[in-house]
Design brief:
By secondary structure, the protein is mainly alpha-helical.
């Protein structure tokens, strides 16, 4: 009787070991995925910053062109 209990216990321990091994593999996969996603987030943030700077530059250019246009229109009205 005790031999059967020992076999059942051994089977449960083996099952627990197998489950732990699978979970450890899943954890490693998730860590890798997390690393990849972190890199993607960093790249997206850098791209956003680049676009924000470019947008500010274009807005500044637009203001300069508007001032030039107003100056030209002012000269035309004087004529």
């Amino acid at each position: 009787m005790s031999f059967e209990v020992f076999e059942k216990l051994e089977a449960k321990v083996q099952q627990a070991i197998d489950t732990i091994t699978l979970l450890q593999m899943e954890i490693e996969e998730l860590k890798e995925k997390n690393g990849q996603l972190s890199q993607e987030v960093q790249q997206a943030a850098e791209s956003r910053e680049t676009l924000v700077r470019e947008n500010e530059h274009l807005k500044e250019e637009q203001v300069v062109w508007q001032e030039r246009l107003r100056a030209l229109l002012g000269k035309m009205e004087e004529v």
